[in-house]
Amino acid sequence: MSISSEHKPLRKQVTGSLHTLSPIVELNVGGEMYTTTLSTLKKHPGSKLAEMFTGQPKLRTDSEGRFFIDRPGTYFKYILEYLRSNQVPTQCIQDVYKEALFYDIEPLIKQLEDSPQIFGELVARKQFLARVPNYSENIELMIRIARAEAVASRQSSVIVCVVRTEEDAARCQDALNSLDTDKKSVVKFGPWKAVPSISDLLDCIQMDVEAKGYKITVQPHVAEKGFRFKSQDFFYKFLFTWW
Fold this sequence. Notes:
- The chain is an alpha/beta fold.
- The protein folds into two domains: 24-114, Potassium Channel Kv1.1, Chain A, CATH 3.30.710.10; 135-241.
- The protein is built from ten helices and eight strands.
- The protein has helices at 8-15, 38-41, 48-52, 76-85, 93-103, 106-113, 116-129, 135-148, 166-177, 198-211; strands at 24-29, 32-37, 60-61, 67-69, 155-162, 186-189, 215-220, 235-241.
- The protein has a four-stranded mixed sheet with strand order 2-1-4-3. Strands 6-5-8-7 form a four-stranded mixed sheet.
- α5 (93-103) packs antiparallel against α6.
- InterPro entries: BTB/POZ_dom, KCTD7/14_C, SKP1/BTB/POZ_sf, T1-type_BTB.
């Protein structure tokens, strides 16, 4: 089967070495089409994006001979805008940051990390959560408990014990010892040494569970038979709604 003349330049672009590669490059990024220059793509020599087009091209091509990058194409336009004009995006910051990390464009990564959205997430919130013992593991435990209790039910609940200090942890343990229900179904967070409050941690838990696609609400746990302490001091109910 012959190759049409309009595709020949692209085919030469694909198979050529660094010396024969066309200065105009056509890209297919996750189904989105872009046209740019080789010099734009190689603006930051140490980046992964530049390496893709250094020497023999290291990318597959689509049926039209365009270089194919298997990444979200929607956000690549922000990467190109930065490469062309040093314009730091103000939209879709979290998603563009992920792409900047993938392409390893160090100057863009650093500028995005100074933005309020990324700074707040990486420096403030994640540094706080790093001081909460077993935070990520407890999030996964909550989800496993909720899913296990969801059989033939529209909602399932998980009881969470949140303690900020060692003293509160001891009191919480006394409360758990007086609990009639299965203590294994109560997920404990804390204590921690950081400024954020219990309500801040509850917000973080809700945010991270919802980020995994679950619909939840949180409320103080109403004392039931078996408690010798005020349950609202430590205990909260996370309600998962399934349908």
